[in-house]
């Protein structure tokens, strides 16, 4: 029986070389690539310049969030170098904040009148344990902490546990609810010594974004641990949801 004629092995060297030489796809797509061309990654811009750049690069169909990331000169592993706080954005944050309040009696009624979305006691705790977490901020009156304390494992990891140092454990639920609704941002240093938060929307005016950034930086500075030595603010950058980061010149943040 005649043997079948063997075909010569295909030369894959050209194909392999072509793949190696092929230009990589732009991270984030064409919009990101276009926005990235506006930014010199080796340069630190003034706050005003940085805000202009992130607004110019925000070209998606939705209103992107303006994010800030701050590298701090702290060691989060040390208990005395934790950085945490709450700050109200002077320009708002461009989104509706849903507030849950643990309170009873008159305090519960006051919270509802102030605009709280969810108000309750043991019944609210049961909903949360069942996974109903459709709120962004949690407030409690001091007498409700026995109930709220049982929810630590659920609320804690999500950053929703009421805390007297943050003003979310208070007898003045009316003020707390109104403040939360007005555009309050909570911040907390992460393991990598970075603090980040959303400070508004790309559709905000440049002046509004600048005001929010300054308010946030001021709050982070005020939260500086007493034991920190050396440079506290090491690097600050802002970006939009789908845009590249823009480094900010720290000297421009100190300007009035």
What do you see in this structure?
With 256 residues, this protein is α/β, with parallel strands linked by helices. The protein has two domains: 39-83 and 189-256, 2-Layer Sandwich (Ribulose 1,5 Bisphosphate Carboxylase/Oxygenase); 96-183, Rossmann fold (3-Layer(aba) Sandwich), CATH 3.40.50.790. It is built from ten helices and nine strands. It has helices at residues 13-21, 29-36, 47-57, 105-114, 122-129, 145-148, 152-155, 173-183, 206-222, 250-254, and strands at residues 65-72, 84-88, 99-102, 118-120, 137-140, 184-188, 194-201, 233-240, 246-247. The strands form three sheets. The chain has a four-stranded antiparallel β-sheet with strand order 7-1-8-9, covered by helices on one side. Strands 4-3-5 form a three-stranded parallel β-sheet, sandwiched between helices. Helix 2 packs antiparallel against helix 3, helix 3 (47-57) packs across helix 9 and helix 4 runs parallel beside helix 8 (173-183). It is globular, with a radius of gyration of 25 Å. It starts with 12 loop residues before the first helix and ends with a helix.
């Amino acid at each position: 029986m005649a043997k079948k004629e063997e075909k010569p092995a295909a030369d894959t060297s050209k194909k392999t070389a072509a793949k190696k030489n092929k230009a990589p796809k732009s991270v984030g797509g064409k919009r990101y690539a276009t926005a990235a061309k506006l930014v010199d990654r080796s340069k630190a811009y003034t706050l005003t310049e940085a805000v202009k750049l992130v607004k110019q690069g925000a070209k998606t169909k939705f209103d992107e969030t303006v994010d800030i990331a701050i590298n701090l000169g702290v060691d989060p592993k040390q208990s005395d170098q934790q950085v945490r706080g709450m700050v109200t954005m002077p320009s708002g944050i461009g989104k509706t904040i849903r507030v849950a309040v643990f309170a009873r009696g008159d305090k519960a009624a006051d919270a509802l009148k102030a605009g709280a979305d969810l108000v309750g006691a043991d019944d609210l705790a049961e909903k949360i344990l069942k996974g109903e977490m459709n709120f962004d901020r949690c407030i409690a009156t001091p007498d409700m902490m026995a109930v709220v304390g049982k929810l630590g494992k659920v609320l804690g990891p999500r950053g929703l546990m009421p805390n007297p140092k943050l003003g979310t454990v208070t007898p003045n639920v009316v003020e707390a609810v109104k403040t939360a609704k007005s555009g309050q941002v909570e911040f907390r240093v992460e393991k990598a010594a970075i603090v980040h938060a959303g400070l508004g929307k790309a559709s905000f005016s440049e002046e509004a974004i600048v005001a929010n950034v300054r308010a946030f930086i001021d709050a982070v500075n005020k939260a500086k641990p007493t034991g920190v030595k050396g440079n506290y603010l090491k690097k600050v950058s802002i970006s939009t949801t789908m845009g590249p980061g823009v480094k900010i010149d720290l000297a421009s943040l100190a300007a009035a």
